[in-house]
Amino acid sequence: MDWNDYDAALFDLDGVITPTAEVHMRAWAQMFNDFLRERGVSEPYTDADYFTYVDGKPRYDGVRSFLASRDIELPEGDASDPATAETIAGLGNRKNDDFEQILKTEGVEPYPGSVALVQALEARGTAMAIVSSSRNAAAVLTAAGMIQHFPVIVSGKEAGERGLPGKPAPDTFLAAADDLGVPKERAVVFEDALSGVQAGRAGDFGLVIGVDRGVGADQLTEHGADVVVADLDELVADAKEAGA
User: Which top EC class is named for this enzyme in its record (predicted)?
Assistant: First the structure.
């Protein structure tokens, strides 16, 4: 790709910059399987459920989507619900507690290839933002030592405060491009989730790059990715060449 055609890079966080998708997956599995066992449901929650119903979505939307797939109805509840509450919000909060505990005890290291691309883009003056459904985005970036590279962060927290619908709607990506002062046609979206590449395509951005961390290149392409890579280090040489 020719980076001279673009002025901004809009990165999803989990699974693109940091391997926190793995931490999220473990936290979701722990929460949902505990919940299903408590209700006497024999069919467990699996990684396939994560990619189909949860990946890339705001937390409560993920809870709602998975429960609907199992024909389980719960009241919505409220964001202030305790993690013990059997509500959509309560289960989402329980998952967040599990995630924070895993992050605290194990930490997180960014993908080396992602660090290399961010540094190359920063060197050439490309504007960069994080667009994440996670409300923990700032904490994860801080733990990974990457927060200084991103002057704009549109996380689940900011999306809620600004009334922006989450992925697969394009609104959070559009808001990040606007915050950077870059037209969407000059911005590149980086996503590893199907809902994320759908958002990039729906927003009509200049380029949508799918990062295949397990969901599958064909799936990413079918849902809107223009290009699919296995790791962002595949794009570093182009970024350095554009910056020369």
Answer: isomerase
